[in-house]
Amino acid sequence: MFSFLQKIGKSLMFPIATLPAAALLLRLGQDDVFDIPFMSAAGAGIIDNLAIIFAIGIAMGLAHDGNGGAALAGAIAYLVLTSAIVTINESIDMGVFAGILSGIVGGLLYNKFYNVKFPQWLAFFGGRRFVPIITAATMTILAGLLGYAWPPIQEGIDSAGEWILNAGMFGVGAYGFLNRLLLPTGLHHVINTVVWFDFGTFTSPSGEVVRGEINRFLKGDPTAGPFLSGFFPIMMFGLPAACLAMYATAKRERKAIVGGMLFSIAFTSFLTGITEPIEFSFMFLSPILYVVHALLTGASMMVAYALDIHHGFGFSAGAIDYVLNYGLAKNPLMLLVMGLVVGVIYFIVFYFLIIKLDLKTPGREDEDDDGAENASSSNNAVDVRAYHTIEGLGGVDNIVAVDYCTTRLRMTVKDSDLVNEKDLKRHGAMGVMKINKTNVQVVIGTAVEFLGDAMKPRVANGNPVPSDSSKKAVVENETTEEPAMKRVIAKDFEMPIQGEIIPLSEVPDDVFAKGMMGQGFAIIPSGNILHSPVDGRVVSVFPTKHAIGIETDTGIEILIHVGLDTVKLKGEGFETLVEQGQLVQRGDALLKLDLEFLKANAPSVATPIIFTNLTEQKVTVMKNGFQEQGAASILKVE
């Protein structure tokens, strides 16, 4: 459940990323700034349709491959839900929750049915084309249920929202405290979405009803802002002061090294309100220090409320949003006074706790951690850093998927115990969090996109040693090691397609039958979708689509050749579902077949599965006869 909520929190970043542009357009178009109505209308076009944007973004974020088919399913889910539910109760307005629910349903249904197979006469509606159909049907049923169930749910949410809104400074203080406390888990995005886009209602002069703290503030609600104002002193002054305290407490010989890094993340927090690089630099070194930070955030929210300060943001509480929305704010100058006081408090508290508890904040590490800061300097190429980050994560063999959000690498690994936290920090990571056995988050900072994009091709290519001359020692060390044994254990190989297993000797083609291409076996397929039998990388997709090459994470090369003489069909009867260089896992769809066409136009549909680069190893086929797609323990390579 925790992992699922994390995925939703991550998926929320897609639609939330549109807010800065929307807020900028909406604000600049107002009559007290540039007075350009069409600019305001452009921004309102995003703000007013956040629910469907959430539906699209979440569905795409939850989809296992990020495919646009999931986004379409999310949009259809939202349209069906909102159109059908009002016929039962026309007063129902689910707001952004309709988008969240639709996105979740669309994404989950996409993952479930993207490769569904139907008989030939219904084949057109199979695969991804079936997802919008099942989504529409599912949401119709849900709309019927929610038409009666949602009013009491909404009443409960409204009651909770009213309690928090009416709890005065204690309500905003509790929200500020939880907002920071949940940040390590990524679940702060979930509570932010509720507060920012659903709590409270406001009717604009034009008669439009808007919900949520951000929407109400940007549309001119004079009561909006208490749940946003108190973040400005923390992000613009408090956390930068914490960086100053960490610099002041750093060892004298390391101040020059950590000074540049601390200044850059402090300035990022002040200007943009992106605080994770700072928070992760001390979050795991001292949970006490982080709890104090969360308490100070709650206190800042309470003081801002007590001083009747109303300010807001479209992205985060940095200087950009402070200046941009100054004209909409109430008592905004008091935030600067608050900020100076908060900055002093943060410096004193952090300085005292770091010294008193001897915390290993940046620049205070033990000698064996020397060099942890150097990797973040501009002297090291991103490619070299990507190499070391992959190695610190346990190497290519341990990495399942590379993903990232605003400041973090969000890694799916096979075993989080293989992740070397010290090594990752030595090469620039600001923090490492092992969510569970297979999910790890590595805090990089705002340059995470460049690092993540550099890592992906490296993972796909086996993470070769960088050509940089400073890495010669790495090459020398690696060349002394014995080469890894190419092997596949039984549980790591699955039946790629439904059908009958036959030995290679029965394939009506001498090249395959006599093993000239390599060891293996063959399948007489009866299914229409060819799936990857192993975890690995697609190394080749033939232009005629009839064959696909895969390299396993242990270096074994597999050729899947669908049918005999099918190269002459020039791609007809095949639809490729992957691209060359793409990472795949067992069960991922590779190729869609028009099996009836192939039977009618090819000499044979026998499909050899060949291991092309084995020398000393032996392929042992453990099953024969008919097998379902996905059946395990088909063979082993030893």
TrEMBL record:
Residues 1-366 form the PTS EIIC type-1 domain. InterPro entries: Dup_hybrid_motif, Glu_permease_IIB, PTrfase_EIIB_Cys, PTS_EIIA_1_perm, PTS_EIIC, PTS_EIIC_1, PTS_Glucose_EIICBA, PTS_IIB_1. The chain crosses the membrane at residues 12-29, 41-63, 70-88, 94-110, 130-151, 163-183, 227-250, 256-275, 287-307, 333-354. The active site is at C405. It comes from the Bacteria. Residues 509-613 form the PTS EIIA type-1 domain. Keywords: Cell membrane, Kinase, Membrane, Phosphotransferase system, Sugar transport, Transferase, Transmembrane, Transmembrane helix, Transport. PANTHER family: CYTOCHROME C-TYPE SYNTHESIS PROTEIN AND PTS TRANSMEMBRANE COMPONENT, PTS SYSTEM N-ACETYLGLUCOSAMINE-SPECIFIC EIICBA COMPONENT. This is PTS N-acetyl glucosamine transporter subunit IIABC. It comes from Planococcus antarcticus DSM 14505.
